[in-house]
Amino acid sequence: MSRVAAIQMNSSSKVSTNLELAGRLVEQAAGSGAELIALPENFALMPRSEKDRLDIAERPGNGPIQEFLAGQAKHHQIWLVGGTIPLVAAVGGRLNASCLLFGPDGERRARYDKIHLFDVAVSESEAYKESAYFSAGDPGGENLVCVDTPAGTLGLTICYDVRFPELYRCLSGLNADVFTVPSAFTATSGRAHWEILLRARAIENQAYVIAPGQCGTHDNGRETFGHTMIIDPWGSILDNLTNQPEGVAIADIDDDRLSSVRRDFPSLKHRRL
User: Considering Cα of 162, then 166, then 170, then 173, what sign does the dihedral take?
Assistant: First the structure.
């Protein structure tokens, strides 16, 4: 049994304010006994313009946001999933939307670069094009990330990835027991699809899903859905923060529950394709 937490935020366009809030919520989660804590996508910055991302982008292993994550993990002796931060890509002067995992020693244990970029018209008046400033992560090799943690083998994904079940099946093939899905889901698509997609990924892979999200209206006018939740391998929602602007969802990862679902309903072993 291992306790985990997912943090919900309404991040602003000011990094220092966001890190202060994230620190308070991490402290709250750690105080509740969480050994693994996940922050949402864009936790450090919800930019007014995309130029703001370039202004705060960090190089791997160096920068105040990475120092914050390492320090929080070490101070609270936790595993910390750092939502996403903009890291300078290896080539082309562009950015990667990177999810970083830090261990209780403050060392970075994993990095996942978002594979599926959100180039979508949500409505006639709301459209996004992440590929204008981000480079997509490699869809294979070292960028398929599974890490052994006290909560089980953790598979890292980000937001829009949740619409691509093949990624989760690949991570399942790497023995993932738990998926993290840090997100900034739009309010429009969130109302229609958020819970359905998360529960589907949990059910079809018989895995826990930890999905921290952004919530509310941000400085740039964007509205995000919230409903940070943790889901068990049967698809049951263990905690759900609905639409409060900030908070912590808490649940226990039960190894016996995971084993019994996979033993009694062995759909993973019945695959023929």
Answer: positive
